[in-house]
Amino acid sequence: MADRSAPSCHLRLEWVYGYRGHQCRNNLYYTAAKEIVYFVAGVGVVYSPREHRQKFYLGHQDDIISLALHPERVLVATGQVGKEPYICVWDSYTVQTVSVLKDVHTHGIACLAFDLDGQRLVSVGLDSKNTVCVWDWRKGKLLSMAPGHTDRIFDISWDLYQPNKLVSCGVKHIKFWSLCGNSLTPKRGVFGKTGDLQTILCLACARDEVTYSGALNGDIYVWKGINLVRTIQGAHAAGIFSMNACEEGFATGGRDGCVRLWDLNFKPITVIDLRETDQGYKGLSVRSVCWRGDHILVGTQDSEIFEIVVHERNKPFLIMQGHCEGELWALAVHPTKPLAMTGSDDRSVRIWSLIDHALIARCNMEEPIRCAAVSTDGIHLALGMKDGSFTVLRVRDMTEVVHIKDRKEAIHELKYSPDGNFLAVGSNDSSVDIYGVVQRYKKVGECIGSLSFITHMDWSSDSKYLQTNDGNGKRLFYRMPSGKEVTNKEELKGVQWASWTCVSGLEVNGIWPKYSDINDINSVDANFIGQVMVTADDYGIVKLFRYPCLRKGAKFKKYLGHSAHVTNVRWSHDHQWVVSIGGADHSVFQWKFVPDRKLKDSLHIAPQESLVDSNSDDSDSDQSDVPELDSEIEQETQITYRRQVYKEDLPQLKEQCKEKRKSAASKRRERAPGNSIRLHFVHGYRGYDCRSNLFYTQTGEIVYHVAAVGVVYNRQQNTQRFYLGHDDDILCLAIHPLKDYVATGQVGRDSSIHIWDTETIKPLSVLKGYHQYGVCAVDFSADGKRLASVGIDDNHTIVLWDWKKGEKLSAVRGSKDKIFVVKINPYMPDKLTTVGIKHMKFWRRAGGGLIGRKGCIGALGRTDTMMCAVYGWTEEMAFSGTSTGDVCIWRDVFLIKTVKAHDGPVFSMHALEKGFVTGGKDGVVALWDDTFERCLKTYAIKRAALAPGSKGLLLEDNPSIRAISLGHGHILVGTKNGEILEVDKSGPVTLLVQGHMEGEVWGLATHPHLPICATVSDDKTLRIWDLSPSHCMLAVRKLKKGGRCCCFSPDGKALAVGLNDGSFLIVNADTLEDLVSFQHRKDVISEIRFSPGAGKYLAVASCDNFVDIYNVMSSKRVGICKGASSYITHMDWDIRGKLLQVNTGAKEQLFFEAPRGKKQTIPSLEAEKIGWASWTSVLGSCCEGIWPIIGEVTDVTASCLTSDSKVLATGDDFGFVKLFRYPAKGKFGKFKRYVAHSTHVTNVRWTYDDSLLVTVGGADTSLMLWTYEIEGHRDSRQCDSEESDLDSEEDGGYDSDVTRENEINYTIKALSTNIRPMFGIKPHLQQKEPTLDERPPVSRALPQPEKLQTNNVGKKKRPIEDLILELVFGYRGKDCRNNVHYLNDGADVIYHTASIGILYNVATGSQSFYQEHNDDILCLTVNQHPKFTNIVATGQETQQICQLQLLLFMCGMQ
């Protein structure tokens, strides 16, 4: 079998050639260590000119386009493009991430700037509004956000002399911002008559509110406040792209290729024209300058970096070069020397030295270059051009040998034959031409078998065959040099290939993902000696595979850095390096190949050193031989918690049923019943798909969850208290370190986490807004202040919260596969670990993000599925339990050993002061010492060990253990079967809580004269429960099939059970032994009923649409009821035992005569008069009102009437239990509703004396007991019920004014359309050639929406005189209230109208105004606190609240 595992060697990024100069500016700086920081493609580069060494920051996954340096010059912020772009703040010394800022911008991050003390960072997005955001970057927290401008913003800067002031500039604007509270308010710069309104490209702030800015025409504009005060004309001959302020003054760089230095008052010092220097050239354009002491750094449009020493300014030193803009496709390596040749659409061919990391030769050609090849002797370099020609140069001096054009379309691939005699040239014309090298490149053959363009070619070692790949993914073979196609595969059997660069063929099958387009791998190169190969693809990834790689979907190691497609990749001649080139990022990456043996030595190095420069992730898992998943885990990973309809959807669904609501509101409806129910006891524990969800509280009670209920159980008194804040399945539970608070997470569309107090059962905090579909794991930090949670969305998002504030601190996508557990490091609350399917990851917080690293397995084995984890006795030690029964011991991220602990998965682990306890699928609890070296004791959970005080019966020996907790001298154990057991250290086991196992519970029956009920479930058990205060399971019997219904006989001695295979049993109600069994049907038995009185007949309804009637005495079938068009859902006998009422799935209400089963038609008026022995039906005029307004979406699944026929209890698909008055005539009756079950309530039954209501939940497997409280007799406790759907509309209605105000809609105004029609084309929209700077940015994100049209006022109009508001008539009283207040002891009155806050002086009758709002003010309040006198808050329509300082606004009206 072919090895599908990833290779054990790896690549390390050693050098990147290039610098991103195009479409970026101000992206080149000196750090404090005198290193140079810049970026290229998706990599941040820190270059040390002294040591000629590069370090790399690899935290981005797309093009970086902006960079800012922290004032202390060690930290760097970089922003990228992409659909969900983010900002990384990283350390230039260690190149590790310090903070990640995300979830706000879209499209990309255009500019970044730190403020003076480096605490805050401002960013500008590439979205249509060019959003400006201010961050507290250390916390990863957004402080403020505002739309920036309708057009591109090119630069932004903090005013370093005034706190909370910023300046931004861009297309035809400059804006001056002030940050107040969390709001950013801009004022546009006034150009006036001093200068033309034009695009501003860069800026720098100086003292006394002075701002210098560089304009598109080469002028420098000087601003004072928001006004343009003077211009320095002709500072540059063309656009000024960069301006840099330092202690000595300012440096500017422009499109004219000049760098100018200015003093602090912007008087010129000197000018350096780079075009005139030795290294200069025509068209050189400066994009970035940085002046530090006597050194100046200059970055150019064409990817060069110059360093200029001021006193030798005419001799700039070229320290970095790269290809210019245009795609880069051509790559070849020299056959005997460490050289790489590249050619690009910029028409240059360049030769790089892989040892010196430098450009050693460059030659410009006439045409864009698409491919290259070096002859076997290293003398000739052939270049294939975009126009169909190819040129051969001498490598030594780059002089031309020949130039041949035989094709019209681009040449895609060139290869010299190994013997050096031939050159094969593959073109877009689908053919390969063969040229004789010795005959001065005369054409000697042609291969014309392909139907598509040629993509790759390889020669055989003996130069007799050529293989090709084409755009259709076809692989063809030709005889050389004639070019005749080889069709007989036998001929090729022993052929050895000289190189392997083809992407299709048996040897490279494994490089293709299972489902992929044949064109998304651009290049391959095999290293035959090392048995590895590299591939380059369209996703910016370089991958390392084993060679040969035969089976699809092979594992690999992957390396990021290139941003867009990687177009070509080659091994160097001695296989020391791999060279890869990027298409759009036109950068050249040089990777060092680290073979296996070196890896072993490097394992002892700290991981930071060995992995820092290639933050590479191995492929999804490194192993091919992943063991089969354990059946239980397999089952669990397949549970999806998605609902068709969530409870959160209820309001919208009701909204859609508006018409029905209105008609309902107009009719008089029956009141809700006065009596109510209260949750009293729940049988069940959620163990089948949850783990570690069971704990002792401070007071020794036990807390756990089932369905949508958090349960606090007192084992001494056998009583329960309930947290009922959730409305759907709870999936996880964690306890606070002080054991008094609990966090529970639930299923939901926008699922919530509740933190609640186990004593008062009151919620302390509810966290929402970040998890979709559900929360599957939570954990508190050791100090109890933080909470980590994991969602069950597709990315299993991990969120870290400050739960008291309800604030999200950090978030990250966790894994594609399921995560089972999250644990916060008890010693370092910024670190956490997650475990799951083939997943063990260690995370550390970085601002708003989390940086994750996979656990390093090393040679110790393979990544197993991990089921549980705990931290050990130091901050580095962690322990995880695997699906194969091992415990893995980790130090930092390294696996140091494994210990066999259980047979089958280890589901739960708990750390003790000295040692650990584990539990597994094998039903054994094991106690370990603190190093996992010795197992001190094991406890097996067996029936024989059950203590006499148990509240039920153990279903099987050694049940799978899902939760373990210690405390109060006992071990608490939760099992998959829904049992909670307490194990005494000396051995006896007490069963405390029990419920059904996984599988829906439908069958429920209450005993006719004892407090007992029976349930039957899909888990294939029939159980009898005691409903008296002892609350325990009395008996259980395993069945051959699951069951859906059961019923006691009228004397309570027999119990009938309907099973899912169409059979039914009658058993003895005490011993559960069989009396009789029958099978006449194939489909599920859905309902079963004894006739009243002596119980002579038994009616058995099935999903085959029939009801069979049996004579119990003679054990014979005596009648069949036919005529139902769907499966039978409910069935009731009349008092005489002569008539059956039947409901079906098609919502039919039918009547049949017993025992023959003849169908009867009874009008509804008559039917109401019939006395029924029981009422469990959901159809008919007596219970029309129980169907909700949204009855199409949800079904009422069950109902049951009290024996006094006054109250009808129902259960529905939403998990609600409701009480109605009976008869519930008329539509949409009023009710009381109770939430505790999660999804469907499948059955409800009153006990014989109506003292309890018993309900069962389908998938939540729980059995709930509710006490029935008669009106007037119940405690004055807070009621758990919610009133009915339609509350107030018909109960007395509204006053007409209130109704009108209620219906005002504040959102009708179109806020951005012009009212006046306009003619002609605005000046800035007239057709013009876009300048270099206004080209759309390169981005693979979504296209930007069309810009909002703004009305740009031309310059030549008469200046408008200022208007000053003097008096306002009016006060907003029509739809506002409590909005007039006295201030200053009654001397002034404050109120509002329109968008203005008005302060009216009573004595003088004068008004002062607050005019910062831009839309109607709707509310106003005055701060009453003595510390904040005269502070007023006003709120306007478009979601903005201004706090106004009235003292300010009385004297100066700011």
Mean pLDDT figure = 84
For the largest beta-sheet, the strand count, sense and barrel status come to: 6 strands, antiparallel
> Helix tally?
8
Task: State the shape.
Answer: globular
**What is the straight-line distance between the termini?**
80 Å
Structural class: mainly beta
Kindly provide the radius of gyration, computed on alpha-carbon positions and rounded to a whole number of angstroms.
Answer: 39 Å
Fold and architecture overview:
By secondary structure, the protein is mainly beta. It is built from 8 helices and 111 strands. The protein is globular and about 115 Å long.
Quick rundown:
The protein has 1454 residues and is mostly beta strands. It contains 8 helices and 111 strands.
